[in-house]
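A reminder from the course coordinator: this example appears on the midterm review sheet, so study it carefully.

Given structure:
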């Protein structure tokens, strides 16, 4: 999996904005994760996830269809199937695998050679972005998400590269990530 890069970061880090902005600089293909969580109003099937039932996901696990999976803080399952990996392997573009820290650990067990990039922001910025994005959710939801974010910070050693996505500096963050990817590809 030579042209594959993991991009990861806590909720509100801007990882999705970084990935979308990278598309204008690099030929990217996104590895699409399957999940049992509910689709948000701005999402569609296959963008950014394949939305499936828990029953379907668990059946796929039992049948060995998933190459990696994890359970997030609210109990939803996330994972990538063999079929999705095969779809990406047929492409010649750069593949971006967007996962949480648990996914990074799982992937690194299977493919330690895949570089993992962590997109970060100060904890207060993460919380403000999360509250703005998910306005209307109850306080328990935000506390749960921020507890998961704090847990995330305990696993920064699993990443090969870290970049801070400062408020108002998305373009610079994208440039740093693109430079890292290009440099890594030149070394291959």
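Designed residues:
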């Amino acid at each position: 999996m030579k042209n594959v890069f993991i991009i990861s970061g806590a909720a509100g880090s801007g990882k999705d904005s970084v990935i979308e902005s990278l598309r204008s600089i690099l030929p990217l293909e996104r590895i699409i994760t399957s999940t049992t969580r509910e689709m948000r109003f701005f999402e569609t099937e296959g963008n950014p996830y394949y939305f499936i039932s828990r029953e379907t996901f668990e059946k796929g696990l039992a049948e060995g269809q998933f190459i990696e999976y994890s359970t997030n803080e609210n109990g939803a399952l996330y994972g990538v199937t063999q079929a999705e990996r095969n779809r990406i392997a047929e492409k010649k573009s750069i593949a971006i695998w967007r996962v949480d820290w648990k996914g990074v650990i799982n992937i690194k067990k299977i493919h330690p050679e895949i570089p993992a990039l962590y997109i970060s922001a100060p904890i207060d910025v993460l919380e403000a972005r999360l509250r703005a994005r998910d306005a209307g959710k109850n306080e328990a939801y935000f506390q749960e998400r921020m507890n998961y974010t704090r847990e995330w910070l305990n696993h920064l050693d699993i990443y090969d590269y870290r970049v801070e996505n400062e408020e108002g500096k998305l373009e610079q963050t994208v440039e740093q990530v693109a430079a890292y990817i290009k440099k890594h590809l030149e070394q291959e």
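The radius of gyration is 16 Å. Helices lie at 15-22, 54-62, 82-89, 101-110, 123-133, 139-152, 170-187.
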